[in-house]
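Hello Y.,

Per our agreement to keep a running log of every chain we model this quarter, I'm adding this entry. I've kept the format consistent with earlier entries: sequence first, then predicted structure.
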Amino acid sequence: MAKQPLKQGTASATLTLSATLSMEVSYTFHSHLIGRSGQNINRLMEETGTRIHFPDRNRITGEPKCNNVVIRGQLPNLEKARQRIRMDIPVEIIVDCSSEKISSLGQGQLIDYFSKNYGVLLRFYPKIDGLNCQVNIRGQQYRIHHLKEAVTSFGCLTQTSLDSMMMKIETSFDHVWLVRDHVDKIAHVTGAGIRCPDVSHLKELPKKYCIWIKGSSLDAVYIANTMLNGLLPMQLMVQIPSERMNRCFLAEAEEADVLFHAEPSVMDILTIRLTSYEWNALPTSKKLLKELSSSHQNTLSQQFGGIVVEIPSLSSADESVGSASLSSPLAWIESCVPASLTASRFDQNSFRRLSDLLETVGLAHYSDLFFQNEIDMAMFTTMNDEDLISLGITSFGARKIMRNAIQELRS
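Predicted structure for the entry above:
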């Protein structure tokens, strides 16, 4: 009888210590999140009890940039860290105004005024015509109402029309691939115009992936931006004892459009990988929590808080845009954003093409590994070095050949 609690405690430790969350954050914000000498990220890791890793290759000049950020720690702490990262990412509104008006007021004076009164940063970019100037007004997620006040004040002070403000999302191929089928619906719900790069032809891909949002109000462009970022791909990996896994969860994950993969590890431990987008992670993680805690409610229910997606609230007067209500964001999301991973389902014919490619380059022995992880040719073309390593391909030579093949497929 004395050994049973010890066994449960050991299993719980394995569960909590093995959780890993992989999320996408535009590499343009990595230095901001890390801070000078790592002060920002060190403080965040200390406060959340997690370890956060940014891609090392982003520091190398000339290397392709990577958006992947990996968080390791106990599952509730992963969610705290994820939310903190999202809230620490700046929000930037872009407006056009008269260069003459900016000159008459003075750039330095405007920067000081808005910094002191609203806590926002202004940056000015003269346009080619010489008559207009692009102004970027940058604020914080957790002070969104201050940013809104600053934008309104800037329009009044500079006599600038705010009918065509913009936001830009610098993102990845994976994100654009997931977003492309939902642009029209998000635009309809928010009233914002959205322009995405064309990724339908893999041989004619753009060098950068930028999504532009344009609207007549901050609410419209901000909510569209939030919805688009909610479609960012994310992977959660956790290890659990195999006897605690209810196989019914497979069907539930498929119904929620979550790619579910479980593979045995050591000592009857299962490694579970849930791949979806950030907004879809909430119901899925709740189901996982329910399955895990069903047999050991007392020990596990307090350890798993689930993945929670919070939308920063606007003022009460701005709680709705068209038919979308911020008072119940989950219902809003479920009704407005359909499942986004359908197009990424594993395709047998596409896998055969990948298997033929691997055989051509002398790497046929990796075919089974890709098949077990449900990776076909379409998904293979989106992989980077970190993805190949996480898959278990430790050979530098093999990864080099695969990266060259991916680059050729994209070019």
